[in-house]
Amino acid sequence: MTKFSSFFKILGALFVMISFSSFVAAAKFGTCYGKPIKWKNNRTTMYIHYPQGSELDLHSQWAMASWADIAGTAFTYYVNWRSGNASLGNGFSEISSAPIVAGHVAHVQTKTLCTKNLRLGTVDKHYITEADLTLNSTYGFTLDTFEPAHLHEPFSFDKVVLHELGHTLGLDEPPQISPFTYFAVMLESYPFGHYDNLSPHADDIVGLRALYPDPSYQKIDLAVSKYREDLSHSHNGLYTKVIVPSTGGYRTWFNKGDPMEVEYTFENLGTTTVTADVRFYFSVDNYVSAADTYIGSASWIMPAASGVIASAVMDVPLSLPYSSTGNYYIGYVVSARNGDDDNYYNNFVSQALPLRIY
Ligand SMILES: [Zn+2]
Ligand SMILES: [Zn+2]
Questions:
Q1: How many CA atoms lie within 13 A of 151 on its CB side?
Q2: Which ligand sits nearest to residue 162's alpha carbon?
Q3: What does DSSP say about strands 274-283 and 326-336: parallel, antiparallel, or unpaired?
Q4: How many domains does the chain divide into?
Q5: The complex's ipTM?
C-alpha cells in the first residue's frame, strides 16, 4: 500500500526566494486479502536477550519507545528478558545478537497468520504472531550518538535497531526511488534523525498511523534536521550546505553582502496541519538562538506527517559580530503559528560546518 502526502508553501508570506523538491510519503506494509498485517490488539512483548539493565538492553528499549511514543498511533511494546538462543517459532518475539548470513547487518524474521473465511468472504486473521530481530554478531556496532560515519562499520546500534523494529511492527521498506525525495527510518541506509537524535520520520509515521491509528491523541510537533538527501553516503555530503546561486555549486566561504542559497529540511511529525514559520540566523557558535543575527524567513503549510527539503536565497549580512573575517554557523528555527509545539528541543538546528565570511 502506498500513501501520498502533499505540502504547500505560503506564497503570500514568503520573504525569501525558495527552491524546493517534493516530499512524498511512500510508507509500505504487508497485506492479507487487502487487510494490513499487524499485531492483534496493537501490542506485543519483545524479549530482550541482553542482560537486564545493560547498555544494549537500555538502547533497545529506547528504540522501542521511539516507535511506541508516536502521536496518533496506538501501539504498545511490552518488555521482558530471556536467556539462551532466540529462535523463530518458539512463540517469543526476541531481540538478540547472533551470526547471520554474511552481508546482512541485521534482519527480522516474522511468523504471520492470514486466513479468509471462504463461505462468509471475511478476513479472519491478518496478524503478526512472532517477530525476531537479530543483529549480526559478526559485525561491529557502536552505542555512540549517531553520525554519518556510522552508516559503515562500526554500525550505529540505535539506527539499526530502530530500522529493524519498524519491521517487527509490520512496516516494509519503501521503494528506493532515485533521487530520494523523502526521509524514512524504513528506507535502508537512510534513517537520519531530527536535530541530533535518531527518530522515526514523517514517512514512517504515515505507515504506523495506517497500521495502528489512534486519532484521540493529537499534538503539534515540528522537527528540523541538519541532514540532507544524498545518494553518495559520503560523510560530509550528508549535511545541509550553502550554495552559490549563480553557479549552483557548494562553497564554504562568502563575502559580506553576497547572495547565498541555504539548504534546510524539516518535517511535521504531529497529527494536524500546521502553518510553519522558518527563521534563519547567523551565529558565531553552533547553537542558534533569537539573539543571533536574523537573516530571513520562509513559511509553509504542512499537512500532518509531511516534510520539506528546500533552500532559501538570502544575502550575507553587511553587519556581523566580527568586523573582519570570521567563522559563522547558519542556523534555523521552525515554529508552528497555530499552536504550541510539544517537542521544542528538535525545533532548531545549526549547520554542521561553519562558513568563513570575509
Ligand atoms: Zn522467537
Ligand atoms: Zn530493512
A1: 19
A2: 2
A3: antiparallel
A4: 2
A5: 0.92
| CA 49 / ligand 1 centre spacing (Å) | 11
Q: Are 137 and 99 in contact, with CB atoms under 8 Å apart?
A: yes
* CB contact at 8 A, 200 and 67: yes
Range of the structural domain that residue 163 is part of: 31-169
Residue-wise pLDDT tens digits, 22-63: 344 668 899 999 999 999 999 999 999 999 999 999 999 999
- Is 13 in the same domain as 78? no
Ligand approaching nearest to the C-alpha of 44: 1
* Peptide bond before residue 179 is cis, with ω within 30 degrees of 0: yes
Residues of the chain with pLDDT under 50: 1-24, 178-180, 191
Residue 186 Cα to ligand 2 middle (Å): 6
With respect to residue 193, please indicate whether it lies within any of the assigned structural domains.
no
- CATH number for the domain that contains residue 308: 2.60.40.10
Residue with C-alpha cell 542558534? 288
Taking the CB of residue 23, how many other CB atoms lie within 10 A of it?
A: 22
- Give me the CATH number covering residue 144: 3.40.390
For residue 108, the ligand closest to its alpha carbon is 2
Q: Are residues 76 and 18 in the same domain?
A: no
> Cα of 250 to ligand 2 centre, how many Å?
32
**How many A from CA of 187 to the centre of ligand 1?**
25
Shared domain for 12 and 93, answered yes or no, is no
**pLDDT number for residue 149:** 79
* pLDDT tens by residue, 333-356: 999 998 887 776 678 888 878 999
